[in-house]
Amino acid sequence: MKIEITMTVNGETVRETVEPRLSLADFLRDRLGLTATHLGCEMGACGACLVLLGGKAVHSCLTLAAQADGEVIETLEGLNERGVIADLQAAFHDRNALQCGYCTPGMIVTAHALLADNHTPGRHEIRDALSGNYCRCTGYEAIVDAIEATAVQRMGEAAE
Amino acid sequence: MTAFPDTQAHIGQAHRRQNALRHIAGRGRFVTDIVLPRMVHAAFVRSPLAHGRIVGLDVEAALRAPGIIKVFTAAELNPTCTPWTGTLDHFARMTSIAQNILADDVVLWAGQPVVMVIARSRAEAEDACELVVLDIEDDEPVVDGALALQADAVIAAPGLSSNLCYGTVLETAGVDRAFAEAAHVVEAEFVFGRHTAVTLEPRAIIADFDASTGQLTVHQGTQTPYQFQDVYARHFGLNEGQVRVIAPDVGGSFGMKLHVYHEEMGAVAASKLLGRPVRFVADRLEAFLSDIHARDHKVTARMAVASDGRITAMEVDDLTQVGAFSSYPRTSAVEGNQVIRLMGGPYAMPDYRGRLSVVFQNKVQTSQYRAVGHPIACAVTEVLVDRAAEALELDPFDMRARNVVADNAYPHVSATGYQFEKLSHEACLTRLREIMDYDSLRAEQAALRKQGIHRGIGIAPFVEITNPGAAFYGVGGARISAQDGAIVKLTPAGDVQCMISVTEQGQGTETIIAQVVADQLGVAPDRVKVITGDTDTTPSGGATWACRGAGIGGETALRAGRKLRDQILALAGQILQADPGGLALSGGNVIDAVTGAPRMALAEIGRIATYRPDTLPRGSDNSLTAVHHFAPGGYPFDFTNGVQASYVEVDVETGLVKLLKHWVVEDCGRIINPLLVDEQIRGGVVQGLGAAFFEECLYDDAGQLTNGSLADYLVPMAGEMPDIEIAHVETPTLDTILGAKGVGEAGTAAAGAAAMNAVNDALRPFAARISQTPMTPVRILQALGHI
Amino acid sequence: MKSPALDYLRVETLSAALDAFAGQGGDAIYLAGGHSVIPSLTLRLQAPSLLIDISRIAELSGVELVGGWLRIGAMTRHAEMIHNPLIRAHAPLLKAAAPHVAHPAVRNRGTIGGSLSLADPASEFPAVAIAMRAEIEVVGPQGPRRIPADDFFLGLYETAMEPGEILRSVFVPPVAAGQVVAFDELARRRGDYAMVGAGIQASFEGDRLGDIGIAFFSVGPKPTRAWGVEALLRGGVLDQATIKAAQAVLADDLEPDDQPQMSAAMRLHLARVLLGRLLGSLGGQKA
After folding, report:
1. Which among A82, B298, C218, C229 is least surrounded, fewest beta carbons within 10 Å?
2. Do B251 and B113 belong together in one domain?
């Protein structure tokens, strides 16, 4: 069986024919060439595959492309091009909140979603929000620092 | 991004990583992101049993499945490759059976590849794997290292006369007397959980053999493309010059991606036979099943102390439990060998006996994984030191102070034969005590104990092997380089490129090399492009392992940079009709060395050399490309040292442990980039804490890995890890101009030891002790006698 | 870890879903949030020939007060349990439990209908449903029926649902004034399957406990109500002595098995510790 799906990905309408078993992660990576979204476990335990679906962070490895029919999807590439995470990206860079970079897209999606929901997260809340994002390289502290610094900076700008 | 300041002293600065920007923007390029024309996908049928004989294999149904291009068994694949055997000559009488790609007659571990299916997609390959009928007559597996050494034990692999892979004893003459005369002897038995690297990017390879040219190009997520260039050439009968290995972005390695695996060799073999790119990516289940494991040790140890608190001797018996064969080419014996030699490392302990037995089991192979042996040696040593302190009623800091090799007592040779150039244990201990405010923590601990809250403080000094020379592998006959090479060139417009044989996995290699080269040439680091990871475009060298990138790679880049500097100054001298000795490089210019006045821009030098060599004096050499290879001399390793501390709170009713804080004082010699050094330490610490509290590969009696998924093998996540405070002492090595030593594994070396001491410290009021990792709630409750 | 080949059908109504299931001879699986179904596919633990996507069925969504009950549609995502004002106000035990369920991104997709119908013994919401005295409404070819949570969870991944039935709503009696809740689980890491967990909902009449519902999870094949502990506590004061007495009788309510990772005795020990702490926190809330 093949089915036709239509969705918006990073602001562009996409119309493709897929096998039902194709995951959204594989669809984004292999069909659309959006390789920022990574596969780390294919069972929703590591967070490497996080994308925004309807504005919410979801595991693209646990979502079928078919389920995303009619949905609005945004990957790190889209967030990057829209410019909405520029301060978060700068903070990650400045604090060296990444090493190999494999977990980074998932981390940024989580951070972006967290800060949209909670403008003043404490370090404990940040660590809690990262509970589904595995990193083997950094030990997490630099990532927490970068997210905290971004939140503080945004609050400062909001106050001005 | 703002440009870097154009200063002379980039070494020592916390420059940000230019090569991190693309990851943050989603432009990382890992092997799994590469698509080649006509690329096909591989999956494997694996042995479901740990030990047995293949009695039936039917691939007919698989061959007819949709999308299937080929189904390979050992008969087709193995003859393309010469077998490999993971032994080294300097491990006397070490033995191991040879390996080839697919199992043909016997299976020796659950997960061993038996059939390789090639299909148009991974999904179709997996579908076809389910159609293969594999019949195995099972044999009793070897699953316990201690039992494996008994006379009547089942033998793990055919052709072996026993399950002993390698054994050795290291001892000093006075060790027995030291124990006989000791005022106190403390002892313990340790069990260390078997670990696996769990890199977020699994192993990935695309092997692309072009039959029309005989050229093999391999894209591989590995730390060491040069080793694999050699391995593929030799084992597949190709000239080295026909083999190109490219390591693009690598999503974590920690040593795991250094080793030869059946699946990767299978991808190369399949590509040779099919003449098209063959892609293999281990999924997460395969990663657990087939990545090298590590750290599966049982250690019995005792320590002799005099009445004044001096450690006079240690005796250690280490049982290293490996797989069914030794890994290739770095062997499965190095870890145990380091364990017995690192014991007592920080201490002026005169006598020692260490006995090592490396034992085969019907499990997946084991090999080097971050900090190789250090975490075990450090934990054994430091737990015993704490027990000795307890017996003598000495504070743990005081006990260390009485025993570490004094900072002014170098050079020093340890009881195990390690040579230390100059370490700083005393300075580090002093600094640690300061930054952790030890006395306040002790007061806090005492106050909270009265409220039934049980906190513990643990410390662990350590030494770490870095900058290894050829004594490590080369002398054993392995074609693993201990030297590196760098080509540095000035581009026509005055930028700089450095092609170097150390590699990048995110630790910051390319950034620190840029800083080192920038300092030699008087340019900003963002004008230095560092190219790594491709055997066609970089010199051959040791790449990344055992913390060598900064110390050895940095020195290589420094010397190559100085050679280019000399070329530039010579050419400038020709152009300016000046003495090169009176010129220098700064701010992107050739300057007057005395006055600092700019004489000409580097861009101008490049322009003339490239486009107008006709304007140069006759006989001028217009080369602006320099090469240098550097092999470490002097000490066999540049040891670093440091000390870590852990502050924990143990819930004595549930056994759950909260990690409140962690400290590291580290001396890694000259620091090239403090930001990158500290982040390496943090990552390493968390990896060590993961080992101490969460990680272990669990096997049943049938040799089945029972927790091989990310839901069941517990890796450390953000919520459970502490903030880590770091300070430094800097004792450069005099073996190099740069003076840098390595740091990549330091965090992992001692974090677990500090944590174990902290937990035991918390449990002290209950006379409960734990000497097994991971320190799970169940084990802590058992130590407390709740069950 | 690629799923086996299968067909997919997205339906808009319950009857279409039921028809599709029947039409496939039962060789079909309903797909809601997908966060239990899809891992089972990628792990190749099952290979149904048809996935029926029920996530767009209007009847399965919504949170509303109706007929004196709080009706929570089966498609309500775990994240909703934290943010929805009706749930916060009327089913606070759900709100207390939800942050413990997996991880933020899983909570954006996982549904309460999925959680209850899967009946994973380590899952939070089945125990919460029991402690809240919820009723679970399922719909099959014969029409809808409501099953009290006490009667819904029968065994390891086994519920009172017949093959093909779809869980439509969870009906929760809104908490009364003066009712307090307590929830916690003991887990190695945030979001992990718990070593042991429990939810409690109780009312105080002055100093004395009125009705109390205590349900444990990760203690056996199914969520388990601590009937004996409830009976002991009902009508009495909650103090150190009664908490100790409650811990002492817990072993009669819970019968965990020995597992490779943890003995029954150890699990019971942890359950006792957890019970003591939750009861203690209840006591702290009553004023």
Report:
1. A82
2. yes
Q: Which residues contact A62 (CB under 8 A, 6 or more apart)?
A: A23, A43, A44, C34, C35, C38, C39, C106, C109
Closest CA to C79 of C91, C95, C59: C95
| In a shared domain, residues B342 and B406 | yes
Q: Reduced to 3 states, what is the DSSP secondary structure of residue A70?
A: coil
Query: Do C77 and C114 have their domain in common?
Result: yes
List Cβ neighbours of A125 (8 Å cut-off, separation of 6 or more).
Answer: A114, A118
C199 and C98 in a common domain: no
Which residues of C are less than 8 Å from A5 in CB distance?
Answer: none
For the domain that residue B530 is a member of, what is the CATH number? 3.30.365.10
Chain B, nearest residue to C271 by Cα: B654
Residues C104 and C164 both lie in one domain:
yes
Collect all residues with Cβ–Cβ distance below 8 Å to B358 and sequence separation of at least 6. Answer: B164, B165, B166, B167, B320, B322, B326, B332, B333, B336
Question: Does any CB of chain C come closer than 8 Å to the CB of residue A110?
Answer: yes
A75/B24 Cβ within 8 A? no
Both B360 and B464 in one domain: the answer is yes
Burial per residue of B147-182, b for 16 or more beta-carbon CB atoms within 10 angstroms, e otherwise: ebbeeebebbbeebebbbbbbbebbbeebeebbeeb
The Cα of B283 is separated from the nearest Cα of chain C by a number of Å equal to: 6
Q: B724 to chain A, minimum CA–CA distance in Å?
A: 8
Q: Does A125 touch chain C (CB under 8 A)?
A: no
Domain that holds residue B639: 293-417+424-469+634-783
Domains and CATH numbers, chain A: 3-79 (3.10.20.30), 85-159 (1.10.150.120)
> The domain containing residue C216 runs over which residues?
179-285
Please give the torsion angle defined by the CA atoms of residues C275, C276, C281 and C287, in that order, rounded to the nearest 10 degrees.
Answer: 110
Give the Cβ contact number of residue B195 at 10 Å.
Answer: 24
For A100, name the nearest residue in chain B, comparing CA atoms only. B506
Q: What percent of chain C shows pLDDT beyond 70? A: 99
For A101-115, what is each residue's pLDDT tens digit? Answer: 999 999 999 999 999
Query: For chain C, what is the mean pLDDT?
Result: 96
B596 three-state secondary structure: coil
- For residue range C85-114, what is the model confidence (pLDDT) as tens digits? 999 999 999 999 999 999 999 999 999 999
CB contact under 8 A, A128 and C190: yes
**What tens digit of pLDDT does each residue of B430-484 get?**
999 999 999 999 999 999 999 999 999 999 999 999 988 877 788 888 899 989 9
Q: Is A103 on the interface with C (CB under 8 A)?
A: no
Q: How many domains does chain C have?
A: 3
In a domain, B551, yes or no: yes
Instruction: Give contacts of C5 with chain B, Cβ < 8 Å.
Output: 123, 127
Question: Is A131 in contact with C104 (Cβ distance < 8 A)?
Answer: yes
**CB-CB: which of C188, C193, C262 is closest to B694?**
C188
Q: Cβ of A103 and B200 within 8 Å?
A: yes
Amino acid making up residue C277: R
Residues C42 and C89 in one domain: no
Q: Is residue C1 part of a domain?
A: no
Q: Chains that contact C by 3+ CB pairs under 8 Å? A: A, B
State how many domains chain B has.
3
- Tens of pLDDT, residue by residue over C236-273, are 999 999 999 999 999 999 999 999 889 999 999 999 99
| Contact between C43 and B285 using a beta-carbon 8 Å cutoff | yes
Q: Measured between CB atoms, which of A42, A128, A132 is closest to C105?
A: A132
Are C220 and C161 members of one domain?
Answer: no
Nearest to A66 among C1, C8, C99 (CB): C8
Residue appearing with tokens 């918390």: B762
Residues of chain B with pLDDT under 50: 1-7
**Most C CBs within 10 Å, among A64, A69, A74, A125, to test the C interface:** A64
